[in-house]
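Sharing a chain and its predicted structure for anyone who wants a worked example. Both blocks are below, sequence first, tokens second.
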Amino acid sequence: MDLYAKLEVYPRNDKKFTDANEALASAISLILSAHPGPVRRFCVPPHILQDRPATVDAWLSSLALVNLQELDFWDGKDMIYRYMQPSPLAPPPASTFRFSATLLVATFGKCEVLDSSVEGIHFPHLKQLGLEDVSISEGSLHTIISSCPVLECLLLKDIFGVGCLRISSSSLRSIGVGVDHPRENLQFLQEVIIVDAPCLERFLYLGMPINLTVISAPKLETLGCLIDEWFHPPRLVFGTASIQGFKVVSLTTALSNVKTLAIASDFIDLDTVIELMKCFPCLEKLYIKGFH
């Protein structure tokens, strides 16, 4: 059984929102109490973590969710939730992590992950992890990533509390990072350092540009989107190559493993793009996006 709960879009202070929220919570409680299980996937809008933490804790403690494989506290299809930014973010219930031994896919949205909640945690089967609009310390983020020995896909979108992230993983194949909506007075991710990722094939920038340093990722074939901002161009250091925006600062060894590259700029200068392409002699696909 997949249990996916979706709330109709109303302004949060609207009575219709309150009534719909109440009806949704009642329906989920009724289903979980009546269903013998197993439930494979449990997905609810993240604002319920804020509004009804005790109720969510009771849901996650249900016997129907034993051996849960997918846990999703994010509904990215309803854009209204992206702008419901309660302050401060609330931590997920302690029962959230009781599924760590069986989860294959997990997405946590609009919450604060406390250091104490991830101490000693282990996700032996987790292959996909997403954190969206999440406050977390650098130490806790490292703990979570290192506790996933078979993790293949990592999404970090609008995470706060980490300025620079160093990643070493023998299993990761795809990484997506970015910031769309910075929170006031909260540090957001500005730099990623790929220390050792022998299986990494894709690194994708999502939203505002960040600095990227790649020390070892021999299978990295897809890279982008590189952004050329005139006021603060991001830096890419890949092996011996250093690129600021679209400008090649230094290049000793070409990046011959990259086959797909995406770039974006307010003003596309053909000569600059051609010069940039010299860094990627085995390039097969080039995607160019203008902001205007």
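Comments welcome. The mean pLDDT is 86.
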